[in-house]
Amino acid sequence: MTPQNIEKFDEIAGKIFAALYESFPVARKLDAKEFVEGGFDAAYFVQERTGLHLRTKEGDFFESTIVWLTAAGYIQGVSKEREPRPHDIILTPKGLEVLKAVPGSLTNSPTLGERMLGATKAGGKEVMRAAVKEALSLGIKMTVGG
User: Fold this and answer.
1) How many Å apart are CA 130 and CA 75, to the nearest integer?
2) At what angle do helices 57-71 and 4-23 cross, to 10 degrees?
3) Residue 75 bridge partners (DSSP)
4) β pairing state of 86-91 and 44-46
């Protein structure tokens, strides 16, 4: 049985991939409230003393997923001209190539990106997790030249 954190990672990564695939080549802002189950209330809480929105454990999990996907070379931050840190995210060439891949030997089946996009819209968590596993496996093979 797959550990719960891996299943959650696969679901969030799939939603991120689908959103970036749909907007490609335009970078887009990614906010935890769009990607974690439960929306804003699950991703953030308001600190009463300061009124600041702080991330919850779920919000931190989303941010950690972004960090991992960036370190693995699937996505990257895009800095604005006058802003010192990345605010928008885009697929890297590796990320796009993986999402454009057609799984297996079926030439007429949807790409991994299309499968993730469809699963996001239909709420298909199992399809999403399976597509993410395939994408990450393909990305590893690309990295090691397999």
Assistant:
1) 19
2) 60
3) 91
4) unpaired
Residue 128, Cβ neighbours under 10 Å: how many? 26
Q: What are the extents of the domains in the chain? A: 4-144
Tokens 């800095």, located at residue: 79
Identity at 9, one-letter amino acid code: F
Q: What is the tens place of the pLDDT at every residue in 119-128?
A: 888 888 888 8
- C-alpha 100/C-alpha 68 separation (Å) is 21
d(CA 24, CA 113): 11
Q: What is the pLDDT of residue 143?
A: 74
Q: pTM of the prediction?
A: 0.85
* AA identity, residue 104: G
Calculate Rg over the CA atoms of the chain: 16
